[in-house]
Amino acid sequence: MSNKKALVTGATSGIGLATAKILADNNYDVIICGRRKDRLDTLAAELSAKVEVKILAFDVSKKDEVKTAFDSLSGDWRAIDVLINNAGNAHGLSPLNEGDLDDWDAMMDINVKGLLYVSNEVIPEMVNRKKGHIVNIGSIAGKEVYPNGNVYCASKHAVDAINKGMLIDLNQYNIKVTAINPGLVETEFSQVRFKGDTERADKVYQGFDPLVAQDIAETILFVVSRPAHVKICDLTIFPTAQASATILHKSE
Ligand code: NDP
Ligand code: 8X3
Question: Which of 22, 84, 92, 154 has its Cβ near the most Cβ atoms within 10 Å?
């Protein structure tokens, strides 16, 4: 029997990278996506020793790039069993009245519209086959709004709503849908949010043990490997020191 196929967006870094690796370790053929082609090439070289690997280098927020990327997939590769909608980032952390329009565009275009563009390419084949599993990476920012989080929180609240909509609309087609909502995970996330200010980014994860990408990847593997009759719909995952978007127990 051939391997199941998983597509992971944002596989060049952090949660997506760890997820692509753990899925390959568990015999999923993987389609790895991201904009940084050099990183995808390196990952493909590593994973192709174990499973079949396809690279799709595109920007999820560019409708035409998404279409061209998916049009390049041959028949077999279009039958995706597991879609991990992970690509996304926060851009900036400032009060709404000081917000940057380009940051707002980036977050809405990538985190929300990008997720929809990719899903639009994958869902029809899942509907035809009456099977599939979509895992949407939301955030605690999609459950709560915290100071200066405004538009990033809005984008992740939209992911939460889209997840719920998928759950309802795709239920009749036997398609599983899961939202994974992490708290603080140490990845390149804060580097991106603070535009390469490493000192500021590093401070986010000091004084407590943050989650690491592997923690989320292991959870995703658990979720997608449940028996056919089990659907995990919504999970929030914190580091032990975190209790909400704003309550974090740091050592002095
Ligand atoms: P990273 O910055 O480490 O990874 C982000 C990934 O998204 C990269 O692979 C990047 O690839 C990809 N990406 C970003 N923009 C685009 C784009 N326009 N087109 C295609 N791919 C893109 O962060 P994380 O791993 O932490 O983030 C992954 C997801 O987890 C995000 O949705 C984030 O919101 C969410 N999350 C993160 C948390 C955290 O604390 N780290 C907590 C809760 C949720 P490339 O740049 O190569 O295109
Ligand atoms: C990432 C976690 O708390 O920075 O979604 O929003 S947080």
Answer: 84
